[in-house]
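WARN no homologs supplied; continuing
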Amino acid sequence: MLWSDPENEPPKELRDAQDMLRRLGLLLALASVLIMIVIGLR
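OK structure emitted
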């Protein structure tokens, strides 16, 4: 790492991708819980 390198801050694209993955994971978790409830009600 050079002294001229910026702080340990990921680029904006990487941060956006991480946010999207986090939202996708949350959505998948909620969907799986809903599916389990529906299966349990049958």
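The two ends are 58 Å apart (CA to CA).
OK
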